[in-house]
Backbone:
């Protein structure tokens, strides 16, 4: 497999990577969403999955997260083959997924969101609210987010901060592999930068990060390995040394297709400009009656 | 909030200072009950001035009783609404529950407590049916419960007529266990010389329990989450379907309790009753600050909403106005309360 080409600098005790997909395929009825895709994510590394809309990124993420089961190929966690029945199963194996828009409940306080689904309880089913408030505050501070009040609704935070709360939450609950579904897609340049910083931070904490994006400029600076998907197939799987940012960008849009598109756009742009120029001149001369 | 990430994280004491300074007023303004509380105070003052009899303790007890009969249902309905759903069948479900208890005990000549228990099982099953239909079909709860509303209304009338030949159930007053059941569900309690119906105390207990569940337990967290963003809740492992079914059953439980009060307060049950009450419960919850779209609200707010409801209901009588106007006032109050809630919430959200 392509994975063999990747040098493993991290001296992990067991040779098997944290997450490994081999020749994984998935179809919905007669629609083949994914086929023959392989990927590895190891501790302390960021594996980027790039692809345009409809490339199969979300199918891939759903398989890793345990929302869907793959039809063919193997999915291994630390060398052990798995077939998750639900996201809960994936979570117990340390695989946490942070969804782009499904991360939080906006009207709920930050701390309630932080512990949602994994509430810490005392006797009689009471929640340990003090503990949860304190932990939320300190975990977020560690990520570099200084909240005035963990009781404020999470909807009042910026998009980047919300992503970071979701990431901090996953890290706190013992995630060893973090799947990030387009965390930068809906964000402005500055906010996206903030999120990228946390991705690097998560990597330095020794997590395996799978970073799904359609933006090679976000992927390249933080990624160690790059998987490019197109129409449900792998277009290439490279380490950072093997590929430049330009090659990555070109690959992502389907190489030749992009080049052709660039030409078309060029032609269209200059053609449009020329046409406009001509029209204006014609009007000035009073030749055309507009 | 963008500045927060740019700042270095090492300012622990500073963060706490800001917390102290900001929170007192904000907390109060941010509460869902605030609008309702202001409304209740205003209404209380208004009726105290307009109606002389309003301030007498016995009238106040009557107001509380009226509030409690709606308030008990409003507890379940408000939790359901926070969970993002409606139950239009709640009104007739009370009647169904009462009819089951009355008909079963009378027809089978059982101890009324047997009827009470059977009614509990049947009513909870009805709530569960609502919940399962909702979670399985994915149809809006508005449609599902509208359907069960009409089906129950028809069943109430049809079954009662088929069995008794009458639109009302036969009286269970002389049956075994009636007195002890009445003591639980419909007794008057003497509080410092004033008769207060026991439902008032049950109401307060239910509100306290619901508030505790909402704010202090994991289930409460789930209720807010499934109402606020069901898909997000599911993604982090909240059992959304189970929570929602539980909430429908919570409404059913309240309906059962209200039904038992009907049976043991009046001994016979009119099969056509309850239609339209579902909106009263929703009004209580909404006046109390529950967001119609879910994810926000409180049981205490719904209780205040029910109190407003009771005050208006009886205040109009004490003021010797034509009670035909009650619904007009109710509608106007709903409008005012929701607008006040909206304005308050927007102001809180805008303040830094």
Residues:
């Amino acid at each position: 497999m392509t994975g063999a080409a990747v040098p493993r600098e991290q001296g992990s005790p067991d040779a098997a990577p944290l997450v490994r997909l081999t020749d994984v395929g998935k179809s919905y009825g007669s629609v083949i969403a994914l086929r023959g895709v392989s990927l590895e994510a190891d501790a302390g590394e960021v594996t980027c999955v790039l692809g345009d809309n409809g490339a199969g990124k979300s199918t891939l993420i759903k398989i890793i997260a345990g929302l869907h089961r793959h039809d063919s190929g193997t999915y291994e966690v630390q060398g052990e083959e798995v077939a998750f029945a639900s996201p809960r199963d994936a979570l117990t194996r340390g695989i946490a997924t942070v969804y782009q828009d499904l991360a939080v409940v906006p009207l709920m306080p930050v701390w309630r969101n932080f512990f949602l689904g994994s509430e810490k309880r005392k006797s009689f089913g009471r929640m340990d609210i003090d503990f949860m408030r304190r932990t939320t505050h300190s975990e977020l501070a560690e990520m570099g987010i200084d909240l005035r009040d963990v009781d404020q609704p999470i909807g009042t935070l910026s998009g980047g901060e919300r992503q970071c709360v979701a990431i901090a939450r996953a890290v706190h609950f013992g995630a060893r592999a973090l799947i990030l579904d387009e965390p930068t897609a809906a964000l402005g340049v500055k906010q996206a930068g903030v999120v990228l910083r946390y991705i690097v931070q998560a990597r330095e904490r020794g997590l395996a990060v799978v970073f799904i994006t359609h933006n090679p400029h976000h992927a390249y600076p933080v990624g160690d390995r790059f998987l490019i998907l197109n129409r449900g197939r792998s277009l290439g799987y490279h380490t950072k040394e093997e590929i430049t940012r330009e090659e990555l960008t070109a690959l992502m849009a389907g190489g030749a297709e992009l080049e052709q598109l660039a030409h078309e756009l060029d032609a269209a742009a200059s053609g449009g400009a020329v046409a406009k120029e001509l029209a204006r001149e014609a009007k000035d001369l009073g030749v055309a009656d507009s | 909030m963008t500045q927060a990430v740019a700042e270095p994280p090492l300012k622990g004491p500073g963060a706490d200072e800001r917390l102290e300074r900001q929170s007192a007023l904000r907390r109060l303004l941010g509460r869902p009950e605030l609008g309702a509380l202001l409304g209740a105070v205003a209404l209380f003052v208004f009726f105290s001035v307009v109606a002389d009899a309003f301030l007498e303790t016995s009238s106040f007890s009557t107001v509380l009783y009226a509030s409690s009969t709606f308030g008990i249902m409003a507890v379940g309905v408000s939790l359901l609404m926070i969970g993002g759903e409606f139950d239009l069948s709640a009104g007739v479900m009370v009647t169904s529950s009462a009819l089951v208890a009355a008909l079963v005990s009378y027809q089978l000549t059982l101890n009324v407590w047997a009827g009470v228990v059977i009614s509990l099982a049947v009513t909870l099953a009805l709530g569960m049916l609502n919940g399962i239909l909702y979670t399985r079909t994915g149809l809006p709860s508005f449609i599902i419960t509208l359907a069960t509303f009409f089906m129950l209304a028809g069943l109430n009338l049809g079954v009662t007529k088929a069995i008794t030949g009458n639109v009302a159930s036969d009286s269970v007053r002389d049956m075994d266990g009636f007195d002890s059941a009445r003591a639980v569900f419909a007794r008057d309690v003497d509080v410092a010389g004033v008769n207060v119906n026991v439902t008032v105390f049950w109401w307060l207990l239910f509100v306290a329990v619901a508030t505790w569940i909402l704010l202090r337990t994991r289930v409460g967290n789930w209720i807010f989450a499934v109402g606020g963003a069901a898909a997000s809740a599911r993604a982090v492992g909240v059992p959304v379907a189970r929570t929602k079914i539980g909430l429908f059953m919570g409404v059913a439980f309240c309906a059962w309790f209200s039904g038992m009060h009907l049976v043991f307060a009046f001994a016979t049950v009119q099969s056509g009753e309850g239609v339209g009450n579902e909106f009263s419960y929703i009004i209580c919850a909404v006046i109390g600050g529950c967001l119609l779209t879910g994810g926000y609200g409180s049981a205490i707010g719904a209780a205040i909403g029910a109190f407003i409801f009771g005050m208006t209901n009886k205040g109009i009588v004490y003021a010797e106005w034509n009670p035909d106007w009650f619904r007009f006032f109710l509608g106007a109050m709903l409008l005012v309360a929701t607008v006040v809630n909206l304005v308050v919430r927007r102001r809180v959200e805008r303040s830094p």
